[in-house]
């Protein structure tokens, strides 16, 4: 699987994105292009403990 990496200034999202779990905040509360992008690249998995796991969409 080949992936590309881009630097994104998280200030524009008004959130600090430095851990995979931070992507969940965008999935739940985001809107516009950032939410569309995150939804197209990642998915959420319920782990049964009121937490979710972020996974790459294939």
Describe the structure.
There is one protein chain. The protein is α+β, with helices and mostly antiparallel strands and 58 residues long. The protein is built from 2 helices and 2 strands. Strands 1-2 form a two-stranded antiparallel sheet. Helix 1 packs across helix 2 (32-41). The radius of gyration is 12 Å and the shape is globular.
Key attributes of the depicted protein:
58 residues; alpha+beta; two-stranded antiparallel sheet; 2 strands
In percent, how helical is the residue content?
A: 25-40%
Please give the order of strands in the largest beta sheet.
1-2
Class derived from helix and strand content: alpha+beta
Following the backbone from N to C, one meets helices and strands in this order, namely HHEE
What's the domain count?
Answer: 1
Strand count, sense and closure of the main sheet? 2 strands, antiparallel
Mean pLDDT: 76
Model regions low in confidence, pLDDT < 50 over at least 5 residues: none
Note the total helix count. Answer: 2
Count every beta strand, where a strand is a DSSP E run of 2 or more residues. Answer: 2
Topology readout:
Elements (H helix, E strand, L loop, with lengths): L21 H8 L2 H10 E5 L5 E5 L2
Antiparallel strand pairs: 1-2
Summarize the structure.
By secondary structure, the protein is of the alpha+beta class. It has one domain. The protein is 31% helix and 17% strand.
